[in-house]
Design a protein that fits this description.
single chain; 520 residues; alpha/beta; Arc Repressor Mutant, subunit A; 5-stranded parallel beta sheet; 24 helices; elongated
Length: 520
Amino acid sequence: MIEKINLDKTNAWPFVEAKKILWEKKVSIEKKGKITLQTGYGPSGLPHIGTFGEVARTSMIVNALNHLTDVPKEIITFSDDMDGLRKVPENVPDQKLLNQNLHKPLTSIPDPFKKYNSFGEHNNEMLKNFLNQFKFQYNFKSSTYLYKSGFFNSTLQIVFENYQGIMDIIIPTLGKERQKTYSPFLPICPETGVVLEIPVLEILKEKSKIIFDNNGKKLETSILDGNCKLQWKVDWAMRWYALDVDFEMYGKDLIESAILSTKIIKLMGKNNPSGFAYEFFLDEKGEKISKSKGNGITIDQWLEYASPESLSLFMYQNPKRAKKLYEEIVPKAVDEYLDLIEKGKTQNELQLLMNPVWHVHNGKMPKEKIIMTFSMLLNLVEASNAGSKDLLWKFVKKYKKDISETEHPIFDNLISYAIKYFKDVIKQKKKYKKPNNGEKNALKALINTLETCNDKMTSEDIQTKIYSVGKENGYKENLRDWFKLIYEVVFGDKNGPRMGNFISFFGVNETKQLIEDKIK
């Protein structure tokens, strides 16, 4: 069992972070009797795949913690929904409505989708619904609710007491013009409902009030009960303090903010959480994925084309390295997932701790035998022209009679994903090569060789014959070009499946006919 292994021997990053938390936050954890991990979400746009990544990765750390300690763990998913809307996202309806409500708290702006009480609530519900699909264990908290309910009041008082010290931390980091108007507290305008960034005239500590200069007009307001919210870096530190957060990961663009928030929470009298800065997700052009732009593949798109586990695997791998995230990434991620399942069957317990799929499945590795790669299945979808799951299953069973749906749930789901992905993504981008006379002759030689094969031959024997045809028809020095020719003519792509394996599933006669049709 895993419990008997010396976990100090593994350097899988969730265990590294888990051990760091237990060491750095030892006193805090012992005092409160639990470990609190937080993920942050800014609902100024629709939840995107990076938001899911934070919760998935934090859950993997919790899984590692479960193997290190019996202390209860809690993941808080915090929505900064009292923040003012700074710009209108490009990928939502009713842009005019949102433009009319710029700079108001997200939970005070009408829902452009007309489903919930506010834009903030709509995006919060989208996030929760999605996380629930993955059965993540989390405790959702709304900034608006915690401010207005008074939950933050005692911590806001501590921020107020340290007003000047916080100003001394923040002011040197600002430009000269911004220094003149900066205040840690942002009042909500009682007339317009806008979150105001205006200078302070007077601090009334005994009343917990501040007098602001609202364009020459005095605005006196309480710092409590949601009448003010805090500027981002101060708000982050206040949240760490009030919720007793032991760990939080964040994008590398927030490293400087984390440094300042750390100084602020220490000024307030507590230590900062353990941190983990991850790299960005990029779209196909290498640009950062943005909620407002809606670029890159969405959560829903990935789940149409591949399993949740393959998405979790993508999140696990190399969190401190920037990764491109677009539709064409999906087959590679799925094939890596299948390959790691196979490797896990021969790994010892210590090796399993380094297997990403162990972390994806919370330590319970799938036992299913992998039938074929996702890439090969996509080729099979094209070659068989199977537009339905039942049809493709019948095709597979024709050549592999010992396969059943009930014993292969991963493959069963894979078929549905492959049909959808081929139709939406691959089919639109196919470019089939028209072979010249020399290339046609080589492919005809392959057809003639397949006449000597049958469906009882092993995939390796068929592969050997394909090699021989290539060598005998001008590709002896570069067999890679021989297979590239087959792929480009037959599959409309520069890459393709191992042909021996493909033919053993697709059938010898069917493959001969397929090549003949493509030559014509």
